[in-house]
Amino acid sequence: MTARLRAPGWAHRIHLGPAAREVLGFWSRERRTLRQGFTALGISTGVGMFTGLVLGSMEGLLLRLPGLLVLVPAAIGMRGAIFGALGARLGTGILTGQFTPGLRRGEFTGDNVAAAAMLSLSGSALAAVAARATAAAFGLETISLWHLMVVSMVGGALSSVFVLAGVLLLARTALSRGWDMDAVGSPIITATGDVVTLPALVLATFLIGDGLVTAALGGLLLAGAVAALVLGLRSGAPITRGVVRESTSVLTYAAVVNILAGTVLETRLDTLLANPSLLVLVPPFIANCGSLGGILSSRLGSDLHLGLLRPRAWPEALAGLEASLVVLFSLTAFSGVGLIAHVGARAAGLGSPGAAVMVGVALGAGLLALAPLFTVAYYSATATYRYGLDPDNFGIPIVTATMDFAGVLCLVAATALLGVT
């Protein structure tokens, strides 16, 4: 983090305008962050491609269980929102000396983990309710609430175990090796959530059977989710109670926005099934949107905590420099996503409109998504900080959820502009 304060260096010797020299100088000082960020985004893209191939091969399941696609972005997004925020809090804890490797109750790490577990259970139930209500509001055919509850909560619980283990391992490694958690946390956590959540949802569908049994199981799971939320809100640990209280409202927003993203995908199901490579593209594209937003939100949150950035209505220069890193990341990340989606789809025997079209769709949609990404990341971080709230609890959930929805809209717009039908 202290590297952000050093003088630019070689960039002053290049005959460029002051703004360009400042940006190049910032990139030079942040070489380590760039290396770590590109590595993390590469991992995120590769893992997201696995998720995309799983989704691309789910044609029969999506047709057999109508409405399941509505739930998918929310189920995946919840893992990224909850555990991405956990990673951001642990990253801030590393910078401020609060992070401890142990999980004892009453300590910083243990209380944060307890809050994330409670939010994961309640968030999964919320996603199921929101999916059923939104599908009904838009007149979409869907399986019952209890079917959605079983799939969402069982799949969410299974995936949360793996994502939580990954977050803790990443935080401990970042502490021991001096990694910038703000640069590597969001992409790797998002990738872990992507790769385990969708297969976990598929496994959970095997529990759907007799209507009465499924309804009873769904009711028990819903009761457990409500109990977890109440325990979190009334916890005797101030950190756990504070995180649950601050996060409940923003996760409600995240669930609704992610469900809207799933609803858009459900309405485009015929186009997606006609071009399975687009299904392959969806998870890594959305993951990169969320990862890039998470990187920016985390870095802005840390800058605010360290006093390097003030929460002003118009972004200061440092905020623009932080955003420039995301532009650099995005040009490579989105181009790579389109190319790898094409190659992966063809290797799996799925149809594709061609490498150039896929790269054009991914890069075009990604560039369209940058404006909302910058806006949401900056104002979510600064507004929450200004009002005495923790940006780590709000920034990543708001950014990832908003970018899931905005990313889907941009992807739909890009396919329409390039005539992919």
Largest sheet: none
As a percent range, the share of strand residues is: under 5%
Helical content band? over 70%
Count of helical regions = 14
Number of strands: 0
H/E topology pattern: HHHHHHHHHHHHHH
Spans of at least 5 consecutive residues with low confidence: 1-14
Approximate shape: globular
Structural account:
The chain has one domain. 81% of the residues lie in helices and 0% in strands. The protein is mostly helical and 421 residues long.
Quick recap of the structure?
By secondary structure, the protein is an all-alpha fold. It has helices at residues 18-29, 31-56, 59-64, 68-96, 108-137, 145-177, 181-204, 211-233, 238-267, 269-274, 276-305, 317-347, 355-386, 391-417. It has one domain (20-417).
Which SSEs are present, and which pair or pack?
Layout lengths: L17 H12 L1 H26 L2 H6 L3 H29 L11 H30 L7 H33 L3 H24 L6 H23 L4 H30 L1 H6 L1 H30 L11 H31 L7 H32 L4 H27 L4
Helix pairs in contact: 2-7, 2-11, 2-12, 4-5, 4-6, 4-7, 4-9, 4-11, 4-14, 5-6, 5-8, 5-9, 6-7, 6-8, 7-11, 9-14, 11-12, 11-13, 11-14, 12-13, 13-14
